[in-house]
Amino acid sequence: MNDNEINALINLLDDPDKQVSELVTQKISERGIELIPKLEKAWELAINQEFQQKIEDMIQFIQFENIKTELNIWKASSEKDLLNGAFLIAKYQYPDLEFSEIQKQIEKIRKDVWLEIHQGLTALEKVKIMNHILFSIHRFNKNASNFYSPGNSFINQVLETKKGNPISLSVIYSSIAQSLDMPVYGVNLPLNYVLAYVDPYYVDDPDGILFYINPYQRGTILNRKDINLFLERQQLEKKPEYFKPCTNEITIERMLRNLLFSYEKIGYKNKLSEINELINIIKETES
């Protein structure tokens, strides 16, 4: 299909015949993301606001379908990279966002940590360096004043503002730690989200966990007794999964549920069905 044919197809979005416009919508959506520049150009040239709105709706539909496709690909991959999963959530709100932008910012922090650590350090010493670089040098902190902001679930926003919720700060922390061969993984603790430093040869803990880390409290070190106490205070059942690392699918689902709750809290009800669709994609992977 050449440019003239594509432009003619886009113009048919404004056809008063409902069957024609529905057929055109289907054909454009089949071409997907590649047609967005053409749609944006058509929007600029349009003088009819109703036609502009139809183009906007078409662009948003294509972008959302693209996110679903990419999330399905992520789900089907063997790696299920955590940072990439968080990027896809951010891309829902920022469709032009590139993964390389996230990688560049993470790499800058990683390099600062890498310059300070060496193999002779203990796990606790490495974590203290991580905490210093993240929370004192780069000044990451909890977004206590705007806890329900959707921005807390978008990794690009958290990297830019240096503020986030427990899970987004943990994703940044664990992604950097793992890239430095530090076995730090997420723990799906209810009403919170923490990290575990794992050593499979550590026999004093049933799950091989040396200690826990709470990025929302500037990397505070916790032990199993602290997790027990937290659950008791919250009157929560002490399920085994609350003490050990969870899968990346569970973490990404948790991020999406946080985003869903944020949109509910601020009244963005038009976003809820789409976020639920994304949650369902991730839920299908769980055993």
Give a short overview.
With 287 residues, this protein is α+β, with helices and mostly antiparallel strands. It is built from 12 helices and 6 strands.
What does this protein structure show overall?
By secondary structure, the protein is an alpha+beta fold. It folds into 2 domains: 3-76, no CATH class; 82-283, no CATH class. Helices cover 58% and strands 8% of the residues. It contains 12 helices and 6 strands. The strands form 2 sheets. Strands 3-4-5-6 form a 4-stranded antiparallel beta sheet. It has a two-stranded parallel sheet with strand order 1-2. Helix 4 (49-76) runs antiparallel to helix 5, helix 5 (82-93) runs parallel beside helix 11 and helix 11 runs antiparallel to helix 12. It is elongated. The model has no long low-confidence stretch (mean pLDDT 93).
- The low-confidence parts are none
Q: How large a portion of the residues is in β-strands, by DSSP E? A: 5-15%
Bin the helical content: 55-70%
Radius of gyration: 22 Å
Q: What's the number of domains?
A: 2
Contiguous helical run count: 12
Strand tally is: 6
The profile of the biggest β sheet is:
4 strands, antiparallel
Principal-axis shape equals elongated
Oligomer classification: single chain
Order of helices and strands: HHHHHHHEHEHEEEEHHH
Average predicted confidence as pLDDT: 93
Structural class: alpha+beta
Please give the alpha-carbon distance between the first and last residues.
44 Å
- Strands across the major sheet, in which order? 3-4-5-6
